[in-house]
Amino acid sequence: MQGTTERRQVLRAASAAGAAAVAGITITDSARADDSESGDPIVGAWVVTHRDNPPGPPNIGKAVVTAAPGGALQNVEDAPPTGVGAGAWRSLGGGRFQSVFQTGVAGQKAGDPGVIVEVRPRGRVHGNTMVGTYTLSGSSADTGDVLFSGSGTFTGSRLRA
């Protein structure tokens, strides 16, 4: 039972991390609230809601994410608050994008190395909204063995100052 509880906690954290990766929060001065100067519609800040697909539980989370010109991204999970992830995005043209980011999830007990979660979103931006799908996987931080994988969907709306 304890293993099941730990796996659920990691999956919740991973799903929250997953959709957040979709866009990203930049850690540089180059992030803007919109894409008016960059020419790429994903650039800017977004509020993203994500939901895992079955067979896992339909974990739903919210994140604030921002994509920076040049392809840097970072995400912050708000609900549930599970941390920060960093990665990269690239344009596929026509408002479409793909990205990848990683975040760490702490171990559940002393000596547990934790899990590295990698999320790979693909989506489309249209005006002030975005939609898409993502895959995610979690690997042991010490061995790299894949512990779980899954997928989900996301929607987002532009966050303006």
Could you outline the blueprint of secondary structure elements for this entry?
Elements: H1 2-20, E1 44-52, E2 60-67, E3 72-79, E4 83-93, E5 96-105, E6 115-126, E7 129-140, E8 146-158
Antiparallel strand pairs: 1-2, 1-8, 2-3, 3-4, 4-5, 5-6, 6-7, 7-8
Kindly describe this structure.
By secondary structure, the chain is mainly beta. The protein has a single domain (2-158), classed as Quinohemoprotein amine dehydrogenase alpha subunit, domain 2 (Lipocalin, Beta Barrel). 12% of the residues lie in helices and 52% in strands. The protein has one helix and eight strands. An eight-stranded antiparallel barrel has the order 1-2-3-4-5-6-7-8. A hairpin with a 7-residue loop joins strand 1 and strand 2. The chain is globular and about 45 Å long. The N and C termini lie far apart (46 Å).
* Overall number of strands: 8
Which fold name is given in CATH as the topology? Lipocalin
SS class: mainly beta
Strand content: over 45%
Residue stretches low in confidence (pLDDT < 50, at least 5 long) are 1-8, 15-36
C-alpha end-to-end distance? 46 Å
Order of neighbouring strands in the sheet with most strands: 1-2-3-4-5-6-7-8
Second CATH tier, the architecture: Beta Barrel
Compute the gyration radius: what is it? Answer: 15 Å
- How many domain regions? 1
Mean pLDDT: 82
Order of helices and strands: HEEEEEEEE
Report the total helices.
1
Secondary structure: helix percent: 10-25%
Biggest sheet architecture: 8 strands, antiparallel, barrel
Query: What's the CATH superfamily, by name?
Result: Quinohemoprotein amine dehydrogenase alpha subunit, domain 2
Name of the level-1 CATH class = Mainly Beta
Morphology: globular
